[in-house]
Design a protein that fits this description.
Blueprint (H helix, E strand, L loop, with lengths): L2 E2 L4 E3 L2 E3 L4 E2 L4 E2 L4 E3 L2 E4 L3 E4 L7 H11 L7 E3 L5 H4 L2 H7 L5 E3 L1 H11 L5 E3 L5 E3 L4 E6 L9 E5 L4 E5 L18 H16 L3 H12 L7 E4 L10 H11 L6 E6 L5 H16 L4 E6 L5 H10 L2 E5 L9 H13 L5 E8 L5 H11 L3 E2 L4 E4 L4 H17 L1
Helix pairs in contact: 5-9, 6-7, 8-12
The protein binds MU-OXO-diiron.
The site of MU-OXO-diiron has 9 residues, from helix 2.
Length: 395
């Protein structure tokens, strides 16, 4: 059941190969995920985080095969979201008096979820818990990504238990970062950052430097999802610092929806215009009704600029564009340019609406957008190519 990481630390989590959606229907997990729980055995024993509630019985049953539950001295709850705290009720039925170490906000969140008055111990940044030879050091990390979040460092083994930070929704049996497909791993790590951590980038940078300034030796980063960063753990820290710093690549993404292909034809012509001006830029077209919304967000995250297109219907834009605009508003992208386009038949107010939404979402809108009446003919397509050129020049 458990997988030994060091003499004193073992992984006792759950790999969920079947998970295809996370956060309800909000996050696609085509590569599955894992809920990493860690058992630290020194003179004292601590369990760091548990697993998602559907696996609670399985988790406790397998944990019993690993250790007499009564020998667990402390439970550390780095984060109270249900994918990490979900097995607590099942576990606490067995060891109801065991202290649960978490932040003050953690207590509120756990009580709010499970309505139990367990034996909570509040910890703050710098607090330590002696385990015998080693000790745990707690660092609060509010809004990374919930107000209750903290991270835990173990001395001697030099392990950072980072919870969601540095995680990925990625199922693997081999656990370590150097044992999996690197392209898959970094695609999932970026997707996780783009879709979950983007709004908190300022906190990410600040917290990373706060931890680095402690000058703690680091052998491993053990997050609560996906691989354990054992081979060169500094690499993912450096990558996070880049992602948190208004990340962009030389990419432009056109996101559109279309009813009778007019807006799609516009998108293709605009893309051709962009490429005429800048042959080095990577241009990608994504139909928001057909593509995975989280993949679109990953592409937006990587882009220096986006164009958003929709025809006008019922004085507004299409359903899939509406959802995407709401996601982008919440994620608060910075340092990205944008503009709108789309076809129309009579009222055609979508371009103005999308332009306003992009501005409200923090994009630098470079022009008033471009719209085309009915189906674009050759003249109109040439105008779209020209619009693409002007957009590229404005960046
Ligand atoms: Fe993996 Fe915020 O829970």
């Amino acid at each position: 059941m458990g997988k030994q990481l060091t003499d004193k630390v073992s992984w006792v989590g759950k790999v969920d190969w079947e998970l295809k959606k996370f956060h309800g229907d909000e996050y696609s997990t085509r590569k599955g995920s894992s809920y990493n729980s860690y058992l630290v055995r020194d003179q004292k024993t601590a369990l760091i985080d548990t697993v998602w509630q559907p696996f609670d019985k399985e988790f406790v049953k397998r944990l019993k095969q690993e250790i007499d539950l009564k020998k667990i001295d402390y439970i550390i709850a780095n984060h109270s979201e249900i994918d990490h705290s979900g097995a607590l009720p099942e576990l606490m039925r067995e060891i109801s008096g065991t202290p649960i170490y978490c932040t003050a906000n953690g207590i509120k969140v756990i009580r709010g979820h499970y309505h139990q008055d367990w034996n909570f111990v509040t910890v703050k940044t710098g607090d330590t818990l002696e385990l015998g030879g080693s000790k745990l050091i707690f660092v609060e990390a509010p809004m990374l990504h919930w107000p209750d979040t903290m991270i835990t460092y173990m001395t001697e083994e030099n392990i950072l238990f980072s919870n969601d930070a540095f995680g990925q929704h990625y199922a693997t049996e081999s656990l370590y970062n150097d044992t999996v497909d690197q392209a898959e791993l970094f695609t999932e790590a970026l997707k996780y950052y783009a879709n979950i951590l983007t709004p908190f980038s300022t906190f990410v940078t600040k917290k990373i430097y706060e931890v680095l300034n402690l000058n703690l030796p680091l052998n491993m980063i053990c997050p609560s999802h996906g691989v354990i960063w054992k081979d060169n753990p500094a690499r993912i820290i450096e990558q996070y610092l880049k992602w948190a710093d208004n990340y962009q690549e030389n990419r432009i993404t056109l996101v559109y929806d279309t009813m009778w292909n007019s807006t799609r034809k516009m998108a293709e012509a605009i893309a051709a215009g962009i490429r005429e001006i800048d042959s080095s830029v990577t241009v990608k077209l994504m139909n928001s009704a057909k593509e995975d919304k989280n993949d679109i967000i990953s592409e937006v995250f990587r882009s220096k600029a986006i164009l958003v297109g929709s025809p006008t219907i019922n004085n507004g834009y299409l359903f899939s564009i509406g959802g995407l605009m709401e996601m982008m508003k919440g994620l608060k992208f910075k340092n990205k340019s944008a503009a709108a386009f789309g076809s129309y038949g009579w009222s055609g107010e979508v371009i103005k609406q999308l332009t306003g939404e992009l501005e409200n979402s923090g994009f630098r809108v470079v022009n008033d957008g471009h719209r085309a009446l009915w189906v674009p003919d050759e003249t109109e397509l040439a105008a779209c190519v020209e619009y693409g050129k002007q957009f590229a020049k404005a960046l």
